[in-house]
Each structure stands twice: as structure tokens, then as C-alpha cells.
Design goal:
Layout (H helix, E strand, L loop, with lengths): L18 H10 L5 H11 L14 H10 L6 E7 L5 E6 L5 E9 L2 E5 L3 E3 L14 E4 L2 H16 L5 E6 L9 H12 L11 E5 L3 H9 L5 E5 L5 H7 L8 H15 L3 E7 L7 H11 L4 E7 L13 H13 L4 E3 L13 H11 L1
Parallel strand pairs: 4-7, 7-8, 8-9, 9-10, 10-11, 11-12
Antiparallel strand pairs: 1-2, 2-3, 3-4, 5-6
Helix pairs in contact: 1-2, 4-5, 6-8, 9-10
Amino acid sequence: MNKEVNEGESKPFIYDYTLEQIQDWVKEHDEAAFRAGQIFDWLYVKRVVSFEEMTNLPASLRDKLNDSFRFVTLNEITKLNSKDGTVKFLFGLHDNHAIETVIMRHNYGNSVCVTTQVGCRVGCTFCASTLGGLKRDLTAGEIVAQVVQSQRVLDAEGQRVSSIVIMGTGEPFENYEATMTFLRLMIHPKGLNIGARHITVSTSGIVPNMIRFADEGTQINLAISIHAPNDTLRSKLMPVNRRFPFADVINACHYYIEKTGRRITFEYALIGGVNDRPEHAEELATVLQGMLCHVNLIPVNYVPERDYVRTPRDDIFEFQRILQKRNVNVTIRREQGHDIAAACGQLRAKHMETTTG
């Protein structure tokens, strides 16, 4: 049984466990099998915050649960509300680290953007998430708790989480097992029951785990942070490209498409004067020609610690036009939460400055 335990802690989080693992635990502790379903229902449908609230369980079973597990405690350090409805949380963890979670409002429902690591070691030069490096992986339960806590906020509005994007701080495919456990919990019909096709995992191109993900046989969407049309430029912007070269990433994308028949999304952050010239668009179109894919152009967010500027509006549209002319499906991402530092890592970076001083 997979029991993900934090440093210095002896008990796993209850949200680290799948229904099947809870069923095994119930059996090991000589409890009736149906109790596992009750526990799962309390966690994901009723969304309680303690075992004491699981009132249809015997007190003896609640005591066993307390002895065996912890609830994930996400302490709300900061909550920012954007004029466009976006809500950004900075949550404190049990070990004094902090993570970000974002609720985004769309005309098709509410999306939650979750974090998979405390910090990030991928090192993209335009991203605030990498400031300070990687501190640790989150457990599956700590990722789950971000969605459950977001759903509690939406419960008060009579709404629900309709989609999830794993695009917060960290590289999910460098925390693969926890990410996959999280995904299985999210799509479970007796849990939050979020449709697999309403979930997107974004990776910077960790090739071995892109292959593993293709072989998982899920309907979950895959997005690749590409940000450049060639090795030389991509290595400058994304040091991870030196470990997993551009050609290998593209080959893994072809494998994924062949294996699943599903379309891949390529995320391309446009940086003024760096990767946003017409020749970059032409080169990218050549690389992606004929591929079952979609390009999402992202005007880069200004990060004070970085020295990049945003691509001018007309140049963004020109980049889009070139790709369209070459028959590459492309859109420009609608910005959300721009007034509340909603880009990955920005709020946490400010918090780190304050606490370290």
C-alpha cells in the first residue's frame, strides 16, 4: 500500500488514500467493508474537516482513523479576489511551506489550478515558480486538499468545481506517483466525480513520464510547455531542455497521439523580442505541421525578478496569424487574475520575501 508520508511525520494524510486503499485499511482493522464507502463519502461528498464529524461511524472507528491518519491542514495565509472573479489562495502547510491555488471563473464553469510541488527545479527563466528552487514534493493528499478546499468555497455559492488544471507551481511529472493518485481520486465516481476530459495536466517535457502517461489509458488532457521552436532557444528559456531535448519531447508527443488518439495542447509563452518573431512562428509551424495539436499563446506575465517584457499586442496577433495560415490550430489565452498576481509563483514569491526578509 502506498503511504506517502511527509518528512518527520509518522502518519499519512487520509486524502493520500484511494477508495481501494481505504477498503484495504478497513479490512486490516477488522471493520465492516461498507465503512470504507462511508469514509470516502464523508471526505469527498460531505467534505468534513475532521474524523469527529463522521457521525455515522462508531466512535471506536473514528478513534482508529485519528490514530492512523491526519487531515490535510491548509491554513489560508492570503486570499485575493480579482475583479474578473478569479480567486487566488496562498495556503500554509504543516511544515511552514506555502503553496498557491487558484479558482478561475469561466462561462462553462469553475476551474481550479493546483500546485504539485513546493517550488520548482525546472528553472524556466520567465517563471516566478522557480524562484528559490524546489523545496519538496506535495503528497497526493496535499494536492487533493486544494480542490476540496476550493469546492468548500464554491459550496457557499451553490456552485461546483467543473474542471481542473495542473498548471500551478511545480512539475507534476517529477512528482508522478502523487499526481496520478490525485487524478484517480478526482475522477472517481463516488468522489468529486470530475470528468477526465475536464482535467488537464501540464508538463515541461519530462519525456519518460510523458510515455508512462500515454500508457495509462486515461482520457485526461495533456499540455506541453514548449515556449520555443528549437533546441537552442528552448534551452535558454527552459534548462530542462538540456535533459530532455526538444526532438525527444516532440517524439514523445507523437507517441502520445498515436497511443491515445487525443489532441495535445502546446503552451507557448510569448516574450517580447525573444521568441515572438515571425521567423519563430514559421519554425514552430514547421515542427507541428500535420500534428493533432492546439497551440495556446500566452502573453508572458511580468515578473520583477526577471528581465522579460510582454510581446506587443499586434505582434501577438501576427504570430497567431502565421500559425493559422500554416493550418496550425491556435488561440490566445484569456488573461485572468492579472490584478492579483495570479500567475504561477508570484504570490508565493512575495510571501517568501516577507518571511525571509
